[in-house]
Amino acid sequence: MSDIRNPLVTTGSPNANASNRRGLSHYQKGRLLLGGQYAGLTLWLIVSLLPPVILLAAAFNETAMFRSPLALLTMSEFTLANFTTAFRAGDFWFYFRNSLIISVAAVIISVVVCVPMAYGLNKLRPRIRSGLSFAVLAMRFLPHVVLALPLFLIFVNIGLTGSRLGLLLAHLAIHIPFAVWMMVGFFENVPKEMEEAAIVDGCGPWKLFWTISLPVVRPGLNALAILVFIMSWNEYLFALFLAGSDAQPLTVGITRFMGGVEAGAQYGVIAAYASLIVLPVIFFALVANRYIVSGMTAGAVKG
Amino acid sequence: MQNNSLNRYTRGWYFVLPGLIAMLLIVAFPLGIAARFSLHDVFLYDFNNQWFVGLDNYLRAWSDPLFLNSVKVTAIFTVANTLGCLVVGLLVAFLLSGKRIRFKIGWMALFLLPFVMTPVIVGITWRLFMWEPDFGVINQLLGMLGIEGPYWLTDSSTALFSTALTNAWHLTPMAILVLYAALTTIPEETYEAARVDGAGPFQTLWYVVLPMIRAHILFVSIIIMTSAFREFDMVYTMTGGGPGRSTTVMSILAYNRGIANQDMGMANTIAFTMFMIMAVVAWLYIKVYKVNKEASA
């Protein structure tokens, strides 16, 4: 991530003064460019952060309605009352429990199932491997509604609607292709020579996976766990179809709360509720962004 | 060591099987059910009565103005998202990869926030605080410039633009991080060589850098395209598909047909059409990617 080069920035090479055409010294030009770069980055930073920051500001202010969101940023009417209302009237902990159980279970199962599968895919004969890879890729691009409809029909038949188990299965249908595709990218970084040397030394198939390959893809495991957690935590469409009334996660909780009488039009309480929901994922982005980045780019360089 | 004996020795199938069975059960099987229902007349809460109607649902869909409208809306939404994210993502990634820019990881972490934010919350936040016509940030800023902003989400001529922009805001970090990672792989000598040949920054970007990260651009376009194509959560929480049918993307139409109209046959037909479009995209991606790889090898 460090040591990045960019043509926008002239380095201090001795003959660079030759480009001094507009009467600016080479040094001044460099400063100007750097300033421009920082200005561009800052502008995008403001665009990126304004909505979440306003959401937080609204959550901590007394009346968020009929006031400019920009005025909220002054925090002139600081209060925590919105959060207590969100907890009490919004049934927060009920939805929170469902979200947490489903997300954690999804992470565990995804890791246990997808990591070996990605490892094994790389070991199959090229033709079978590329066939299976295509299937995984096609499933990774699957629109969620394509699965939500038939899963709803199936779950009605086997009595799984309104259960966390059913919702978990639906999540896994999205996570498994995603996670396998991502982990294949990580396993390709394992040097072939390392595995071959281990085989020559008499290493068995299981030991080869567990002690040789797996340690190399450790960062990939973190990335997988974090990304699957975020995807499960953020999921809404499956919940809408399959959660019934007992298994509803937070994303359904807040939309129901918004439509309910308690919320009315209390933007502050809605903002508090929403802030609580995004808190864990924002925490991950700030603390574990390294893994999110490596996970999202893992599939980029392979075919 | 011979590749084949390595394959046999490592017992790849044993590792693949659990995941493969899971995928067959929870992905392939439901897909088959979706395909089957798309050929039947079947209604919600009345699954025991099904009539095989062949391709009738598909024919009905393609002569239904609502469906055709949703295809158009989805296409505009998807293309706008892909282009918007690519251009902004490339620009930001290029700026961030500057040699003298400090705290790169810090910038990146903050840039990621829109991407990890729950889509439902993104929708709610933008609806209540950004697009809100009287007090929302966008119209406040426009007001400072003396422009009276429209009723973004409740005006059918601006609703699609507003939802697409919100979704692009959510997806752009994806483009930034992939393209940034790609830019860091370009060696210093390339830039040196371009400079010696007298190329300015933007010529360097266009003629030297872009061709080198072609594969990454392709990858990130596909990822953004597929996410925008299937988007449901954000649009649904922002407009519910309205006003009128101006933001009824295919996902929302499938949901409405299945749940509100209880026409599960038609819902599955729309959904399965979406799946077939995505399967073609996946197939094309692999084709183009292989060509790309051979060309650059």
Automatic annotation (TrEMBL), chain A:
Region: Disordered, residue numbers: 1-22
Major site of localization recorded for this protein: membrane
UniProt subcellular location: Cell membrane
Segments of skewed composition (Polar residues): 8-22
Gene3D superfamilies (alphabetical): MetI-like (1.10.3720.10)
One annotated GO biological process: transmembrane transport
InterPro entries documented for this protein: BP-dep_ABC_trans_perm, MetI-like, MetI-like_sf
Keywords: Cell membrane, Membrane, Transmembrane, Transmembrane helix, Transport
GO CC terms in record: plasma membrane
Membrane topology term: Multi-pass membrane protein
SUPFAM superfamilies: MetI-like (SSF161098)
ABC transmembrane type-1 domain segment(s): 96-288
Membrane-crossing segments per the record: 38-58, 70-88, 100-121, 141-160, 166-187, 223-244, 264-287
Recorded superkingdom: Bacteria
Entry similarity comment: Belongs to the binding-protein-dependent transport system permease family. MalFG subfamily.
Protein's name according to its UniProt entry: Carbohydrate ABC transporter membrane protein 2, CUT1 family
UniProtKB/TrEMBL annotation, chain B:
InterPro entries: MetI-like, MetI-like_sf
SUPFAM superfamilies: MetI-like
Family matches, as PROSITE patterns: ABC_TM1
Membrane topology, as annotated: Multi-pass membrane protein
Limits of the ABC transmembrane type-1 domain: 71-285
Any one GO cellular component localisation term in the record: plasma membrane
CDD domains linked to this entry: TM_PBP2 (cd06261)
Keywords, sorted A to Z: Cell membrane, Membrane, Transmembrane, Transmembrane helix, Transport
Annotated compartments: Cell membrane
Transmembrane segments: 12-35, 73-96, 108-129, 159-183, 204-229, 265-286
Pfam families: BPD_transp_1
Gene Ontology annotations of biological process type: transmembrane transport
Cleavable signal peptide: none
Similarity field: Belongs to the binding-protein-dependent transport system permease family.
Protein name: Carbohydrate ABC transporter membrane protein 1, CUT1 family
